Amino acid sequence: MLAIDAQAQDLPGGAAAPAAGAPTSSPVDASQEPTPVAAQVGSGTADDIVVTGIRASLASSARIKRDAQQIVDTISAEDVGKFPDANIAESLQRITGVAIDRSGGEGQFITVRGLGPEFNTVLVNGRVMATDNPGREFSFDVLSSNMIQRTDVYKSSVPELQEGGIGATVNIITARPLDGKSGFHVAASAGGIYDTLREKLSPDFSAVTSLTNDAKTLGIVLSGSYTDRRSQLDYVQTDGWLFGAQNVVNGTASSTGLTTAALGNTGATVNVPQNLAFARQADRRRRINLAGAVQAQLSDQLLLTVDGIYSKFDVFSSRNVFANFYSAPYIGLEVDGTGSAIGFNRPGQQFLAANPALNGSVSLSQNDNIVDNNNRLTQTYQIGGNLKWNPAEDVEVRFDVSTSRAKQRNPTQFVVVGSLAQTSPRFDLNKGEDLPTASNFGNITDPSLMRAHYTGVGNNRVSDRSSEYHLDTDYKIQDSILKSVRIGMAYSDRTKERRFFGNNDGGCAYCGYDIPVDTSLLSPFKLNNFLPGVSGSENVPQQFFTYDANAIIAFLSNPANLARARQGRTAAEQAAEAARLLALPGGPYGVRENQGSLLNVNERLLAAYVAMSFGGENWSANAGVRVVRTQTISRGFEQPVIDITNTRGDDTLVFTYGASTPVSVRNSYVNALPSANIKFNVTEKLIARAAFSQTVTRPTLTDLGVDNSFGGRISVPQSSGGNPTLEPFKSTNYDLSIEYYLNSISYVSAGAFYKTLDNFLELQTVPVQRFGRTFQDTRTRNGQTGYIRGIEVGGQYTFDWLPSVLSGFGVAGNYTYVESKAERDSALADYECGYNGLSPHSANGSIFFEKFGLSARGSYNWRSEYLRACRSDQGRPRNRSSYGQFDFNVGYDITPNFQVYVQGVNVTNQRIHEWSAIEERFLLLQETGARYNFGARVKF
Q1: Distance from CA of residue 444 to its chain's centroid?
Q2: With contact defined as beta carbons under 8 Å apart, do 226 and 288 qualify?
Q3: d(CA 224, CA 15)
Q4: Beta strand pairing status for 717-721 and 773-782?
Q5: Is the separation of the CB atoms in 370 and 415 below 8 Å?
Q6: What are the backbone dihedrals phi and psi of residue 128, each rounded to the nearest 5 degrees, phi first?
Q7: Distances, alpha carbon 448 to alpha carbons 467, 517, 522, 662, in Å
Q8: Looking at CB atoms within 10 Å, which of 111, 138, 646, 695 has the fewest?
Q9: HSE-CB of 229 using CA atoms within 13 angstroms
Q10: Residues 6+ apart with CB under 8 A from 712
Q11: Cα separations (Å) of 366 from 262, 403, 512, 552?
Q12: Residue 663 Cα to chain centre, angstroms
């Protein structure tokens, strides 16, 4: 079988087998050091008992944590092709200080010690892997967990470790054939995935195979997986709260005979929701993963390893939305003591007919039926080679080269068919209930009232290409307090490009709700069983319209419809406009590149380091420095805005651009990053650690662009883009920890950390004057300074000493407390903001049982409320409420080589709730439902 031999016994002083992070190696070596194909405990021989499962995974993690010279936590596979969870990030959240963000109910990003995904470096086999995201953050959902053997989370730094993670550096390690047994071995699983909201069964297959000669000088390991998951999201959302003095109509929705004297202004700042939308989103998440490695022991001194990973991950999302958009003036605006709007109406056609003197002074409210198709189509690969040479017993030289590429296509359709409201739609905040209420829509199920409005089509693209070269040397020294000297250097070249394709010059061809759509293209859409048990869900509109977006686009592309007069044009003027639209490449709904939004950033890094390890009878330490030079070139186009208009019947802004000219900006800087770690074995079981380091996180590549984009509405013009002269975010870090090991599995640990921060990078939305208007400009800026500090406690314990069935039980858990202080530019500090992604409290607890062929684990993961973005929609904060989720895994070995299993994720159906600045200002309530994975595994 493929599993590594293991002895179920206590580890006196730690296992003899080398492990990533142990004193005999360093994190940069992790891609080539022996990587357990199954959890490895002790130093066994071919006749030892093979231990797999929950206990073996915990024992392997405890051994690595104990042996490491720096502060590290690890999650290890329970068996061949069996990581503890179907999603890597969902396993990592059981490590102290780690919390996750989910996409479609799956873990996608991690936050470590309060620092979000952009502040954590993720390596695959010791190398940076290209990502399909616009930024550096790594998406854990692109990789299947079956190919992963171990994932290490380094919380303190050493010079050998690649810079870039001020929160942590995560190294994902795949299997190596020469670490397993000789011969041919296979482990495979087949099963299904069931999402309770979608009520669909999806396939889930994976396999791992290895072939190694008897001499263990040549081997190959291959793994693959396929999933095609269908899921659903139900949610209500608001796209931010407009803030400022608001125009109002002093009256009620039933007022008659009002004159312009009824128009007024609040004078004081009032926060008003931009819209209220009710949405059901159907997702299909199809993932194909392949991984492999070949190893050849060319001689006693030379080991060659070649490995690769390939991922094709496609997410197809289709969203049906009913929405009311709100803009001034507001009828009978009611405001509470926090300056939040708690109730108002928006003018409808009947209101305007009853108050004709207001014609031209007020805009009409809309009832929108939206179909939004948004697909994320990605491909990612990494190929690497490593040559390890031992010219002498105490000398090791490693040369590593790798290349990686990721690309994403994002085809989208955003189609709006709706009507100008007959009645005057109303908004009520409904304090004390889960949802606000939108009401008084009038007739929203009569297809004859439906009119064409906005239609946006896009196909944006992201590509990421990188190459890395590493040379590392290790000189061991005998009979000295100085144990080793490590010297190395690294070079990388990475280019990130993002291109925008759309129909910005044709999207508003029908804006204004003038032209009726073919009613045969419309069909009812019912929100059955929508957010049951949520207070306020009984007021959600139960039925509206859906349609085939392609059929609507074909209808709107008909030259006869394009020629129908609208938007205040005469027939001749409309004919000229139709000719302009048809002359566009691809017509009004063809996708054309927006050169002004092009982003191309090249980053070249040259690093060198020197590190020394020391040790005595009961202590060890390391110290050194890493120096890195960063050079960037940001390329793109400058495209001037020559005109801004808005469409009739709508307040959406339309921008006209002039000729584009190429532009590039260069930047460079050098950072020296010292670090030191010390480990003291107080007793055989008690270990104390201390660490110091300086680390940096460089701006994410797409934030360094020279691009600019413009949009928004008359009430809130918006702009966004890059900032090519951003400086790296710097952190000085201090760590203390103690660990007490009861045996090979059980331990308790406690730690404290303190980080001083400078040049913090964050996405900010600030008012900027452009073209005679005040735009809300969103882009990454070097903002605050401050600190993050906290404590972590964790541990795991098995009840092996109890009699009979009780000896199969065990527990594991952790708790992290983090507090912070952020000092921002006083000009931006109109409200308090901390650090994005920082939950003051997070905790995880698990209870498990493993005996008589049965293995089971139940886990509860919880984090307190946190700030998602200081300046998000409409330039205001986006906060997420506390969230707790219960998951479980159960497996039963029918034979030693055949197991059946079931896993449940979010089985209590917890919902996500977000708000702006204060909890009453509702932003989002989202339900993903529970997910169950089940099937069978076989190995031979």
Answers
A1: 36
A2: yes
A3: 31
A4: parallel
A5: yes
A6: -70, 130
A7: 58, 8, 10, 49
A8: 646
A9: 30
A10: 652, 653, 718, 719, 775, 776
A11: 22, 51, 10, 19
A12: 31
Contact assessment for residue 91 and residue 85, using Cβ atoms and an 8 Å cutoff = yes
CA-CA distance, 659 to 407, in Å (whole number)?
29
Which distant-in-sequence residues (6+ apart) come within 8 Å of 96 by Cβ?
73, 749, 751, 792, 793, 794, 814, 815, 816
Structure tokens at 192: 């299904």
Q: How confident is the model at residue 650 (pLDDT cuts 50, 70, 90)?
A: low
Phi-psi region of 922 (alpha: psi -120 to 50; beta: other; left: phi over 0): beta
What are the residues whose beta carbons fall under 8 Å from the beta carbon of 35, sequence distance 6 or more? 20, 149, 150, 173, 174, 175, 176, 179
What burial class does residue 423 get, using C-beta atoms within 10 Å of its C-beta: 0-12 exposed, 13-18 middle, 19+ buried? buried
Separation between Cα atoms, residue 462 and residue 590, nearest integer Å: 19
Q: Residues for the chain: how many in total?
A: 940
CA distance 921 to 271: 9
- pLDDT tens profile 21-78: 322 333 333 333 332 222 222 333 333 333 468 898 899 899 999 999 899 998 888 7
pLDDT higher than 70, residue 287: yes
Structural Rg of the chain based on CA atoms:
30
pLDDT computed for residue 283 by the predictor:
95
The whole-chain average pLDDT of the chain stands at 88
Give the C-alpha separation, 349 to 793, whole Å.
62
Q: Is 837 left (phi over 0), alpha (psi -120 to 50) or beta?
A: left
Beta bridge partners of 546: 523
Residue where the block lists tokens 């409409």:
874
What is d(CA 105, CA 905) in angstroms, rounded to the nearest whole number?
Answer: 8
The residues, any chain, with a CB within 8 Å of residue 680's CB and separated by 6 or more, are 618, 619, 687, 688, 689
C-alpha closest to that of 437 among 319, 324, 352, 306: 324
State the DSSP code for 844.
Answer: E
CB 325 within 8 A of CB 346: no
Q: For residues 313 and 141, give the distance between their C-alpha atoms in angstroms, rounded to a whole number.
A: 8
CA distance 195 to 718: 38
Q: What are the backbone angles phi and psi of residue 213, rounded to the nearest 5°?
A: -70, 165
Segment 799-826, tens digit of pLDDT: 999 999 999 999 999 999 999 887 766 5
Going by DSSP bridges, is the β-strand pair 854-863/501-502 parallel, antiparallel, or unpaired? unpaired
The answer to whether 922 touches 238, Cβ cutoff 8 Å, is: yes
> Do the beta carbons of residue 117 and residue 141 sit within 8 Å?
no
Token pair recorded at residue 469: 């070269």
- Cα distances (angstroms) measured from residue 425 to each of 34, 327, 452: 66, 12, 20
For residues 88 and 734, the model is more confident at 734
Give the CB-side neighbour count of residue 782, counting CA atoms within 13 A. Answer: 15
Mean pLDDT of 628-652: 81
**What does DSSP assign to residue 516?**
B
Q: Report whether the peptide linkage leading into residue 585 is cis, meaning its omega lies within 30 degrees of zero.
A: no
Largest Cα span, the chain: 99
Give yes or no for a contact between 194 and 932, defined as CB atoms under 8 angstroms apart: yes
Any idea what the Cα angle at residue 864 is, between residues 755 and 319, rounded to 5°? Answer: 110
Q: Cβ contacts of residue 856 below 8 Å, gap of 6+?
A: 848, 849, 850, 888, 889, 890, 891
Q: Are 377 and 412 contacting, i.e. CB atoms less than 8 angstroms apart?
A: no
Residue 82 has pLDDT above 90, yes or no: no
- At 213-236, the pLDDT tens digits run 999 999 999 999 999 999 999 999
pLDDT recorded at residue 80: 61
Say if CB 545 and CB 522 are below 8 A apart. yes
Bridge-based pairing state of the strands 661-681 and 686-697: antiparallel
**In this predicted structure, what is the pLDDT of residue 43?**
31
